[in-house]
Amino acid sequence: MKHIYFLSTRIFFVSMLFLSSCHSGRKATTAGPAEANTRDIRSKVVLSKKIPARTINTGQVNADALVDFAETLVGVPYKYGSARKDEGFDCSGFIYYVFSHFAIPVPRTSSDFTNAGKAIPLADSRRGDLILFTGSNPKSGVVGHMGIITENKKGRVRFIHSASGRGAG
Predict the structure, then answer these.
(1) Is 23 a catalytic residue?
(2) How many domains does the chain have?
(3) How far apart are CA 53 and CA 7, in angstroms?
(4) Is 91 marked active-site?
(5) Rounded to the nearest 5 degrees, what angle is found at the Cα of 94, between the Cα atoms of 8 and 148?
(6) Catalytic residue among 3, 22, 23, 161
(7) pLDDT mean values, one per 10 residues, the chain (169 residues)
(8) Rounded distance, CA 154 to CA 141, Å?
């Protein structure tokens, strides 16, 4: 059995200034695409010793299939704490729903993704990689928002996510 980290043996950890956390109480916009390079990158997510390291077996699922399915969910509203299409998604609920569609078990909360996979440089990110942010507090070191990278063309990274309404998306 081959264990790989999120479709391409990698997961990308980054934090961004002013990107909204999944924990916003505001009504949402909808799941949709965003560009990661439109905000200043200020710090990295700090790997937590309190959260156990884990790998995720993606089996034979390829990145294109995963992203293509995620893109069918554009327009589903944001709802904090939800991983249900009929109710809406928060950011980790969106990731959970997409990966569950392919029978890939993943953590349910964004903070539990902190030690899943391995960090890679933004320049090396590819379609299907996850991008993790600290959310609205870049100094916290705790994952507060996440999405799925849809493309990286010459350093211009785009990703799909469920936004709470304060961030891009």
Answers:
(1) no
(2) 1
(3) 17
(4) yes
(5) 30
(6) 161
(7) 33 35 39 45 53 74 95 94 95 96 91 78 89 77 86 90 64
(8) 28
Residue 45 phi/psi, 5-degree rounding, is: -65, 135
CATH number of the domain that 123 lies in? Answer: 3.90.1720.10
Q: How far apart are CA 110 and CA 60, in angstroms?
A: 24
Told to judge if 101 belongs to the known catalytic residues of this protein, a careful annotator would answer no
Residue pair 167/43 in contact by the 8 Å Cβ criterion:
no
Of the candidates 22, 23, 101, 145, the residue annotated as catalytic is 145
Answer yes or no: is 6 within a domain: no
Predicted model pTM = 0.71
Distance CA 36, CA 53 (A): 25
